[in-house]
């Protein structure tokens, strides 16, 4: 049953939130998030995720597997246009909202999304009002943040992006699968590319 796959991913995400102290410090697990029947929207990145999610750890493997199993059934999104990020980027990138104002589970308290990027992609500087905490489920990437040092993150690592602080992400030889939390005002906003 598809619903069972959603609930398995929800539970695995909750376990991940419990396992990583930085996630629990950033926000509580949302109360009363209820399942919403949203249509599946496929993106080409599903195939890439299933073929190679990148290296997980013992702690992240359950979430990684649950997300790969769920991938054909979620409402994937792109946010950006081809003119903004290029055709190759759109072939090998996608995200979906697991929990949030427009998520597969509805909550107004936080927004929890899953993002995937294939190897060798540059996600340029962008920003958004909500504070953001990335956690890496599998794979690796270089995380840039204005005013801070660039860090290569792999499974189990986290990075905080302050409100409207431009940041960017580059994958090199590995893809990356991420679990991302937004908190604060503007949870239903889209990120936007930084102008300067
Ligand atoms: Fe962001």
From TrEMBL:
One Pfam family of this chain: DMSP_lyase
Gene Ontology MF terms: dimethylpropiothetin dethiomethylase activity
Gene3D superfamilies: Jelly Rolls
Coiled coil: none
Protein's name according to its UniProt entry: Cupin domain protein
Protein species of origin: Roseovarius litorisediminis
The organism's taxonomic lineage, starting at the top: Bacteria, Pseudomonadati, Pseudomonadota, Alphaproteobacteria, Rhodobacterales
